[in-house]
Amino acid sequence: MEGSVFAKSVELMVVGMGMTFTFLIILVCIMKVLQFVVEGFLNKVFPPAQPAASAAATAVSDDKIKIAIALAAAKSMAK
Asked: Would you report the helix, strand and coil content of the chain in percent, each value rounded to 5?
């Protein structure tokens, strides 16, 4: 009697783990399909925002940094 109960419990465990594994594999496949849909279709409909940094703004800030460095160097030499 107990051997039969043990066999049934092992069978139930194997079936349950098999169903869980199958569900997880199906879930991963669905996520991959959704990733393809989002990257392919939605990015064409709603393109991602591009940063609005211009070269002129960067050049101005570089000039201001150079001036600040020169002033700091001149002030430290004057001491």
From this structure: 85, 0, 15
The one-letter amino acid at 50: Q
Per residue in 58-67, pLDDT (tens digit) is 556 778 888 8
Q: Which of 71, 52, 74 is nearest to 63 (CA)?
A: 71
* pLDDT tens-digit map of 13-26: 999 999 999 999 99
Question: Distance (Å, rounded) from C-alpha 79 to C-alpha 76?
Answer: 6
CA distances (Å), 7 to each of 15, 17, 19, 21, in order? 12, 15, 18, 21
> How far is it, in rounded angstroms, from Cα 28 to Cα 34?
10
pTM: 0.50
